[in-house]
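Reader question, answered in our methods column.
A reader sent in the components of a multi-part assembly and asked whether the whole thing could be modeled at once rather than chain by chain. We filled in our standard form and ran it. Here is what they sent:
COMPLEX SIZE: two components
ENTRIES:
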Amino acid sequence: MKPKAVILLSGGLDSAVMLYYASDKGYDCHCLAFDYGQRHKKETDFSRLIARKAGAKFTVFKLDLPWKGSSLLDRKMALPSGRSPLKIKGGGIPTTYVPARNTLFLSAAASFAEAIGARAIFIGAHYEDSSGYPDCRKEYLEAFDKVIRLGTKAGTEGRLALKYPLISLKKSGIIKLGQKFKAPFRLTWSCYNGGPKPCGKCDSCVLRAKGFKDAGIKDPATS
Amino acid sequence: MKPKAVILLSGGLDSAVMLYYASDKGYDCHCLAFDYGQRHKKETDFSRLIARKAGAKFTVFKLDLPWKGSSLLDRKMALPSGRSPLKIKGGGIPTTYVPARNTLFLSAAASFAEAIGARAIFIGAHYEDSSGYPDCRKEYLEAFDKVIRLGTKAGTEGRLALKYPLISLKKSGIIKLGQKFKAPFRLTWSCYNGGPKPCGKCDSCVLRAKGFKDAGIKDPATS
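And here is the structure of the entire assembly that came back:
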């Protein structure tokens, strides 16, 4: 029997590649997506499509946060727009930062993983071509892995660990890896806005476009 | 203006003492309780009473876990009953362990703390007279503090930290501290069962009774 793994899915490119990577490594993949009050439902819709395409299990966890504090949650706040990749990298932590988001997601993943007896949790975080979120850094993920190993029954028994194999890759490297695994880029959604098409101007669209350009690959979702 | 703090409230004795301790230290206390599918609603009901008595703010976060894996969540599982304090301590991690519970609670507290600009998160965890849950150990809490410092905006800016001042106390010590602060023991609920009165037989009732006995104080909630 294949070992189980929990895969955090956001509907975006990185986590889709993560799923195909984990599947390639022989894991029985249980995807976990979150409805946490984000601006649009595309994240969970696309996550479902990606999981189905990969033949993986899929669960949505509704996290009804009684607080906001992010332009991704609060429609009264403006989203950054039209920033260059350089400006995004040098601009500090942007308003799209959601308070402790990856910590919330990873804690749910840890609980889910224990409940189903999974051996690993995969997160597709990377920092090099990201928006500068502190919870996408390697030292943060190392600290969370320690939380799992010290604070869960499965972790203390050496049966559960956090994996983040994309952490040191650039966006273009993740795209190349995804191409190798035949990850369905067409079924991924990166745009912070929930329009009929990606806006092309939000930080997430800008970083995605740069990634495909650097990789020398055409983005099937926008072309 | 007083600095804000988030206090994790469970309706039990330890977190009530924690609240009075933080209040004594001069914090503007924002209590956070969880409706996470536990067997009964007494935890949130008593938490509300305690927060009101202390004049603190109060928020309930509904965590609708799509999985179980604990006798505190799954009514088809039996609760341990009639165990001596010695047996509880030596019995390993019991079925009442909820997968990654404190990690879930602390991640929500971190998110809430950032959203309201709190400077500290207080958790009343202690290990000496506990049920042996791994997420009540000092090394776990140290690891989670690191997660906050590395993975949140407020933490990276040195504006948020985790506090667990009861960690090295025995239950009797916590009760004595609570007496000093005039914490309302009468308004606390420890029993894992949700009957009209505490059952007196579950691990939590047994540890509470031992604590009051060791402290030489009468428990107003059971007498």
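What stands out: The two ends of chain A are 40 Å apart (CA to CA). The first strand of chain A starts at residue 4 and ends at 8.
Send us your own complexes using the same form.
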